[in-house]
Structures are given as structure tokens and as C-alpha cells.
Design a protein that fits this description.
This protein has 168 residues and is of the alpha/beta class. The chain has a single domain, classed as 3-Layer(aba) Sandwich (Rossmann fold). Strand 3, helix 4 and strand 4 form a beta-alpha-beta unit. The radius of gyration is 15 Å and the shape is globular. Bound molecules: 4-nitrophenyl phosphate. 4-nitrophenyl phosphate binds next to loops. The site of 4-nitrophenyl phosphate has 10 residues, from loops.
């Protein structure tokens, strides 16, 4: 997953959940926010998608947006479905839970992109069962929990990638 990151060849990440309206838009928004804070916008292209087609075209869930806004993070995504061609397109594919990881890996028929496909909680110092819990059917507490997991995982992910940046 690591390579030289330059302005000419920015690092491309995509966060993936089921609906692309709760967890992966939070990943996209939080990672973009952290990148912006460090002035590294030219070095990263950040996106999100869902493994399902349930919510294509929709903005992030209002509870996800409200929670992110409480932390000064804006969620600007419109839901799109993860495509097989995305396996080649992105440098890093971050699945929000094990079910979505399995579905993405299933699309990678001969395993040639296996090294790019990770779990969000691979970057969490307290990974629990490895999945970011689906907040969709629960209350606000679940959305705040998602935000906190995603925030600390994205901080660690950016810390891992930052040494690969080659500025000139
Ligand atoms: P997400 O949450 O995968 O974090 O966007 C969900 C959104 C919608 C559904 C399930 C999970 N749904 O069943 O429609």
C-alpha cells in the first residue's frame, strides 16, 4: 500500500461501506479534514463508495452529517457503488467492516489487488472485532461511536502515509 506520494501522482484512497451514506462518507470527510489541517491536499485524492446500490445519488445520512458537523467535519459525498475497476484505480481500499471486505475481495477474482484492500480498524489501536459497527438502525450514540473509531483510525493511517510524501 505504500509508494512515493507526489503532487504529480497523488495517493488515491477510497473508503467503502454498505450504503455509502453513514460510515464511508465519515471516513472520506474525516480523512479529508485531517489532510486539509496539514495542508496536504495536493497529495491525496479521497473518495467513498458502497458495495450496495441501495442509496446511489444520496447525500450522507443526516445523523452522520450532524455528528461530523459537531466536530467541524463536513460530509460532501453523494452515494456511489464500488466498481470492479476501482480495484485498479485506487492505491488503498479501506473497508469499514469484514462483510464489505469479503465482498470487495470477492470482486478481486485472482487476488492481484489483495495488498491494497484493508480494514479501517487495521489502523485502530483498539480494533475490537475488526469492524466499524453499522449505525444505520440505531441511535445517535452509534453515530458518535463511528466518528470516534474513524477519527483515530484515520489519524493513524495518515501518520503511516505521511513519510512517503516527496515534496520538492
Ligand atoms: P453504511 O450504513 O453502510 O454505513 O452507509 C448503512 C446504510 C444503509 C443501509 C445499511 C447500512 N441499508 O440497509 O439501507
Amino acid at each position: 500500500m505504500k509508494r512515493a506520494i507526489t503532487k504529480e501522482n497523488p495517493y488515491k484512497l477510497i473508503f467503502v461501506c454498505l450504503g455509502n451514506i453513514c460510515r464511508s462518507p465519515t471516513g472520506e470527510g474525516v480523512f479529508q479534514h485531517l489532510v486539509n489541517e496539514k495542508g496536504l491536499q495536493s497529495y491525496f485524492q479521497i473518495d467513498s463508495a458502497g458495495t450496495s446500490a441501495f442509496h446511489i445519488g444520496e447525500p450522507a445520512n443526516s445523523k452522520s452529517q450532524w455528528t461530523a458537523n459537531q466536530h467541524d467535519v463536513k460530509l460532501n459525498s453523494r452515494a456511489q457503488q464500488f466498481q470492479q475497476s476501482d480495484l485498479k484505480e485506487y492505491d488503498l481500499i479501506v473497508a469499514m467492516d469484514k462483510e464489505n471486505l469479503k465482498n470487495i475481495k470477492h470482486m478481486d477474482k485472482d487476488g492481484s489487488f489483495d495488498h491494497k484492500i484493508k480494514l479501517m480498524r487495521d489502523f485502530d489501536p483498539t480494533p475490537d472485532d475488526g469492524s466499524v459497527p453499522d449505525p444505520y438502525y440505531g441511535g445517535m450514540q452509534g453515530f458518535e461511536n463511528v466518528f470516534q473509531i474513524v477519527k483515530r483510525s484515520c489519524e493513524n493511517l495518515l501518520n503511516e502515509l505521511e513519510p512517503e510524501i516527496e515534496s520538492n
